Amino acid sequence: MIALLIAGSLLPMSVAAAERGVEYPSRPITLILGYPPGGASDTLARQLAKYMAEDLGQPIVVNYRPGASGNIGALTVARAPADGYTLYLANHEITLHKKMYGHMNYDFSKDLAPVGMVVELPFILVMGNHVNVASIQAAMDLARGRPLSLSCASTGLGSVNHLLCEALQKAAGIELLHLPYKGSGPALVDMIGGRVDLLFTSLATAQPYLNSDMARCLAVMSAARLPELPDVPSIEELGFMKAEGSAWFAIVAPARTPSPVILRLNRALNNVLAQEVLREALASQGFVVPLSNNTPEALGTFMAAEEVKWTELFEKRNIGGVQ
Predict the structure, then answer these.
(1) Does the structure show a pLDDT above 70 at 183?
(2) Rg, C-alpha atoms of the chain
(3) Measured between alpha carbons, how far is 71 from 116 in angstroms, rounded to an integer?
């Protein structure tokens, strides 16, 4: 009788604990990355895994599933059990998978649940010194007068630099020659060597070349100037706000993951992003940490807007998908 009374008195406590997500996690978590080791996203994933593991009290293992611009990794998570033990470090390319990889049988808006934004990565427009113009206005005038005379490198169909290249062409009424590369490193080398003219890339990637005067920065692809480049105009100042854009990384989980688990993950994410040591480390890599309203709902709204924005651009620019 006493044992039954004790068990009965503990039952409501255990149910309440489960509803608050206190019992989660009870084993290691896997963070899927849709790219191979060694890049900026890998560094970010490993930093995030380290700090969130400390907050959650369980190891977080980074697992690499490269291919299809990250969509193989996203598909892996979409099909994983909805228990919070398989997460995905997503970027904008999952919102374009229908346009780029229509054969992939998942829908990010239905099969993945937003947890929270991790970072944004502002992009800039850089130009090789071999191009004999002094400003972005002069470069646009050259492109208008001689269509396809200026080339624009990217890291592939649907990449951030490709999208920004297409957006600028549409906003400025110009035609650039798109040259896809396997990575920003080779693209930068060719730009320095005079084999390609323009490249949209992150400040952290381009900074060494800018510091050594091996390339020039024409614009910041955001609404405001960057503190690190106070003399470089923003794309809004230049009148091409529709070409604004940046890279971003966010955590998503399989759809139907219990709400208490999503909220626990979101709390852990915001806790670690508030730590000064991590914020400084991310800032040194060019990442911008969200300052407020970093909720699952806010991320869901943001990703839906990204899908509309970039899918519309693909359609208007008549960019075909990869089947």
Answers:
(1) yes
(2) 22
(3) 19
